[in-house]
Design goal:
By secondary structure, the chain is mostly helical. The chain is built from 6 helices and 2 strands; from the N terminus they run H-H-H-H-H-E-E-H. The chain has helices spanning 2-12, 14-18, 40-49, 57-65, 70-73, 87-91; strands spanning 75-76, 82-83. A two-stranded antiparallel ribbon has the order 1-2. Helix 3 packs antiparallel against helix 4.
Length: 93
Amino acid sequence: RFALFIKESAASGELFDQIPALKGLDQVQQDPRWHPEGDAWTHTLLVVENLPPQATFALSLAALFHDVGKKYATVILDTGRISAKGHENFSKK
C-alpha cells in the first residue's frame, strides 16, 4: 500500500509539493553498470515497491529517502561514467 500511495502521490505532483527533497530525482542519472533502471527516482520506486509486506513505516521511509543525496553528489566523470560518491552523507541531512 505504501508503494501505491507514493506512486499515486508522485503522479499527481502532491508528493513533491509536500516533500521537496524527492523532487528532481527523475533527472538524476545513475551509472547503468549498477543501475540499468536509469534515474534515481525510478530506482527509488523500485526499492519502495520491493519492500517486504511486513516492512515497518520507518523502513519504508528509509527506502523512500535513501538516495535523495544523489541530487547533490552525482557527477559525470571524464570517462563518461556517472558517480554519486558520498551521496549517503547528503541523504542524511
